Amino acid sequence: MALLIKNGNIVTATDSYVADILCEDGKIAAIGHDLSAPVADEVVDATGHYVFPGFIDPHVHIYLPFMGTFAKDDYNTASRAALVGGTTTLIEMCCPSREEDPLEAFDLWLGKAQGISSCDYTFHMGVSRFDDNTEQKLRTIVERGIASFKVFLAYKGFLGVNDDELCKTLKLAQELGVIVTAHCENETLIAERQQQLLAEGKTGPEWHEPSRPVQVEAEGVHHLMAFAEATGAHVYVVHTSCEPAIRAAEEAKMRGVNVWVETVIPYLTLDSTYAEQGDFEGAKYVMSPPIRAVEHQNCLWNALRSRSISTVATDHAPFDFVGQKEMGRDDFTKIPNGLPSIEDRVNLLYTYGVKRDKIDLHTFVDAASTQAAKLFGLFPRKGTIALGSDADLVVYDPMYRGTIAASKHHMATDYNPYEGWPIEGRPSLVTLRGNVQVRDGQFIGKDGIGEFLKRDCTH
């Protein structure tokens, strides 16, 4: 199968130029001017459009048992939504509880995607306990192609690890060359604040953020940095929401700690007033760490522009408002944490980042694709436009104008946190290994062709 994309403005993390791209057998076979392909199945004229490498979301939840319920998407809906939004590869958090066997959990999560996902996928392997049997099982999982772990410094008794387990996980990761992604909050301080607020009768969603203030997140980052510095492990701070947490990571990096920072699109675009809306509407915006006061957004954009923040993900964790978010009507601690955003990340980052002159196009591509590929063992197969790379391409129409609405999104949730938001640009064509999966905002491709991506360790 051959696909020829002509006259597009090709933009990578480092380069921008007008050229043609020939895709054959799932790979980029040629890049140049006036290319021809007599046997091409399709020729696409991309004049006036950008051509980006397929975007990578390095932090999603699809199969997720959490807080007494399950995330609403499955790989059928989530992968279609991702592709419509220009994301061709997902890295899902495989998050077994402390009672689950790691190998059994990995096979369970893998089975939820195989033959169902319409985009490519891989996993961060969650480590929720570290006992006498854990090390060998983690070694086996790494041998099977997983090059990253995930630890929680929150959710005590369910997903969270203690300091002894954290240290053992980091030491093993350092030995194997695995990077450790980490949710950084102090669970003890959170529990204390939650109990205090509830005792005072403060039960609404507007109290979620005060129960997990910026100091709690920053302390979690400080804690991880101390252990990373002691072990030499490579660490990646997920969903960073505020200036003190960024500063803690930057200070550690200056000391020589191998640390990278992720933020997610809700923190760049939403602020705490959304969670303070009346009639329980604020529950739609409850996630952890919480969406912060608006003054933290400038810090995040500045850190993204300077590349102190390496990646922009989603932390996609989709729950319905009716029947799921409503579980916490009388107690904010029971509201399932998370927002659906896998479909809208790229368009929001382009519209409210690039178009508002907060970041340039190269930073956009780097943060939404290339850095994730480099950090997590996918580059140069993914994350760039180069000879031999997978033909995962996004032909992007910068002239498109539209609005976000739950009535037309492909995610399974009954609401969209960006309802009515205007977007200025969207993918007009999305390919996965040369297969056209999306055209003009609609999934028109092949279901279930997504591949599990086996990765090499990165250090």
UniProtKB/TrEMBL annotation:
Residues recorded with modification N6-carboxylysine: K150
The protein's UniProt keywords, in alphabetical order, are: Hydrolase, Metal-binding
User: CDD domains, per this entry?
Assistant: D-HYD (cd01314)
Per its UniProt record, the required cofactor names are: Zn(2+)
The UniProt PTM text for this protein says: Carbamylation allows a single lysine to coordinate two divalent metal cations.
What EC number(s) would the UniProt record show? 3.5.2.2
Q: Name one GO molecular function term.
A: dihydropyrimidinase activity
Q: Name one Pfam family in it.
A: Amidohydro_1
Q: Which GO terms describe its cellular component?
A: cytosol
Spell out the InterPro entries in the cross-references. Amidohydro-rel, Hydantoinase/dihydroPyrase, Metal-dep_hydrolase_composite, Metal_Hydrolase, Metallo-dep_Hydrolases_sf
Q: Where is the Amidohydrolase-related domain?
A: 50-404
The answer to whether UniProt assigns keyword Hydrolase to this entry is yes
Protein name, UniProt field:
Dihydropyrimidinase
The reply on keyword Signal is: no
* Residue ranges of coiled coil: none
Q: Which organism is it from?
A: Aeoliella straminimaris
* Family assignment from sequence similarity: Belongs to the metallo-dependent hydrolases superfamily. Hydantoinase/dihydropyrimidinase family.
